[in-house]
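Figure 6 in text form: structure in, sequence out.
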């Protein structure tokens, strides 16, 4: 069952993040042309990234909803519901008429589907990570990394499928080719749902629920999380730098690279390689956090992440395709260091009956601020200044907050759940 849980968490997360980040890639590559054609090139890109940000805004709401029922009813049911909701909304995006067909209704429907995606994603990460941790509590960093690998797997799959679709020549890609990756989601969800329905509820959660019922525990986990907000604030700060950096090198960089003269296929392939790097090194640094502690790995990773972004821009500004590949790969490698232990660390900061709510809310708020608005902020800085120095400073500031949080957060790698 433990292996089935690991498999379920990985593939379920792959599907969820495939859907979520596929929208991000399309926002950078095609949505500005298809859903915001009346805008100028810069304004259309900003509107497209604003739509992308809407999904991140909805994620804390999803974290609260799924977290409440995940802490009260169980982890498994929430994971099943989240994958169905994500699959339906993503498939609908692939069927939406464009602005040329139905006018202003097209971007409004696009925003609605993005909001539904955000609510779904808000409950996915917490449930998947906690199920792996609570089924294999001895090496929590390593076990939780399996669910977190789904993030990179989803990015990898989304970029790979989108790159294949974008290889269509002529007007075929903008006419109908971009829809294929979204429609594939319907098939993936059926597979993920079949896997998830076969797992058992977390044994640690069942034990904690029985004890909580005997003690007449509060019925609203969110109230308890907010009553002692220190760990929630630390959770937000711990993840903030990693989210902001990944939004830059994994999403916004597609738009920047195309504007900078790199072929669309090359920039998508570079992001594809970056996701593969994250997938490979995620369990490595998560395991090292089990051995050396969460604080050391996350702290060092945050510093290296901050340094990697200006290096990435410097390499890209040489105009060399090889340098562009190297720069994005370096950013992905440093991101794997800081991100790998965070699934376990956030879960360890909260008691079992508040864990889904607390970890999900902290992670999703950081995702909204750091990930959802980062592409919009980067596009605005670039439009205002014409350079990337301000973007590097912005990422450096978010990573500094992560370093500060590392000093105040408890070392939990050897504590009992």
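Output sequence:
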């Amino acid at each position: 069952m433990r292996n089935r849980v690991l498999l379920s968490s990985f593939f379920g997360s792959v599907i969820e993040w495939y859907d979520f980040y596929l929208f991000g890639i399309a926002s950078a590559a095609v949505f500005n042309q298809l859903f915001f054609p009346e805008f100028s090139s810069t304004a259309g890109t900003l509107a497209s990234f604003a739509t992308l940000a809407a999904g991140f805004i909805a994620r804390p709401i999803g974290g609260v909803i799924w977290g409440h029922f995940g802490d009260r009813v169980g982890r498994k049911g929430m994971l099943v519901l989240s994958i169905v909701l994500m699959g339906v909304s993503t498939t609908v995006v692939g069927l939406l008429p464009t602005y040329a067909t139905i006018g202003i209704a097209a971007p409004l429907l696009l925003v609605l589907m993005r909001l539904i995606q955000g609510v779904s994603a808000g409950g996915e990460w917490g449930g998947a990570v906690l199920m792996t941790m609570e089924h294999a509590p001895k090496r929590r960093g390593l076990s939780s990394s399996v669910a977190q690998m789904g993030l990179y797997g989803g990015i990898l799959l989304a970029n790979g499928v989108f790159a294949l679709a974008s290889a269509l020549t002529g007007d075929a890609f903008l006419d109908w080719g971009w829809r294929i990756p979204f429609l594939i989601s319907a098939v993936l969800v059926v597979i993920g749902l079949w896997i998830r329905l076969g797992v058992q509820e977390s044994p640690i959660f069942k034990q904690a629920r029985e004890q909580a019922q005997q003690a007449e525990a509060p019925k609203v986990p969110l109230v308890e999380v907010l009553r002692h907000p220190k760990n929630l604030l630390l959770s937000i700060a711990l993840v903030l730098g990693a989210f902001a950096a990944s939004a830059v090198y994994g999403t916004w960089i597609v738009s920047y690279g195309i504007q900078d003269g790199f072929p669309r296929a090359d920039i998508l392939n570079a992001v594809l390689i970056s996701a593969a790097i994250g997938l490979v090194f995620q369990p490595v640094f998560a395991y090292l956090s089990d051995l050396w502690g969460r604080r050391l790995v996350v702290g060092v990773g945050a510093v290296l992440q901050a340094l990697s972004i200006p290096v990435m821009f410097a390499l890209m500004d040489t105009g060399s395709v090889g340098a562009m590949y190297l720069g994005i790969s370096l950013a992905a490698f440093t991101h794997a260091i800081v991100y790998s232990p965070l699934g376990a660390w956030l879960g360890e900061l909260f008691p079992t009956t508040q864990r889904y709510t607390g970890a999900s809310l902290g992670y999703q708020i950081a995702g909204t601020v750091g990930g959802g608005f980062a592409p919009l902020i980067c596009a605005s800085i670039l439009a205002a200044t014409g350079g990337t120095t301000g973007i590097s400073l912005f990422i450096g500031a978010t990573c500094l907050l992560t370093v500060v949080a590392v000093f105040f957060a408890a070392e939990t790698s050897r504590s009992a759940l």
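Caption detail: The CA atoms of residues 62 and 119 lie 4 Å apart.
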